[in-house]
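new request in #modeling-help
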Amino acid sequence: QKEVEQDPGPLSVPEGAIVSLNCTYSNSAFQYFMWYRQYSRKGPELLMYTYSSGNKEDGRFTAQVDKSSKYISLFIRDSQPSDSATYLCAMTYSGGGADGLTFGKGTHLIIQP
Amino acid sequence: TAGITQAPTSQILAAGRSMTLRCTQDMRHNAMYWYRQDLGLGLRLIHYSNTAGTTGKGEVPDGYSVSRANTDDFPLTLASAVPSQTSVYFCASSDRPNNSPLHFGNGTRLTVT
């Protein structure tokens, strides 16, 4: 089973707010977790790539993985209008190969100026 | 700038006609992929190639074919287009088939009439 659940939104927040984006999954074999950002009429671009549980921070972005709960999050601090995009989570497992990468359907985020 | 180039950017195609979507990468990545993205369905894997000379079927391969004659190019062919193949098609690549994050092109928007 490879199901990944992600709320499609839209999620609308005021500029400067902290944004929390989440995915849940059912396959306990997943070990590698990614977040992609996709602007309108563009391809997804990699934001964060983490392995196993814990937190990873990169500037205003923090990725959090809780394997015991099968739950991952992306936090955006001091959100900007330029953060408005669709955010997709993705995950895979060691030896998973190309068809082992499972994407969520994406959350549409709107940052209001 | 290194990356993935897809062509054409958009295309309107009559049903029953054939078409090849082109994808070229200059990162010398081993693995390449074709996805289609549809509203409400997210990204779905069509075909993949773990290395030059090999290809595999993804989640939705019917009506599509691919070839991988060399490392850099991974064309996707629709032999006889149908309206349900109206979608945005993304080509992606990764350094290794397992675990590596994907790098995406900016897509081809295809409308089959």
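bot summary: The mean pLDDT of chain A is 92.
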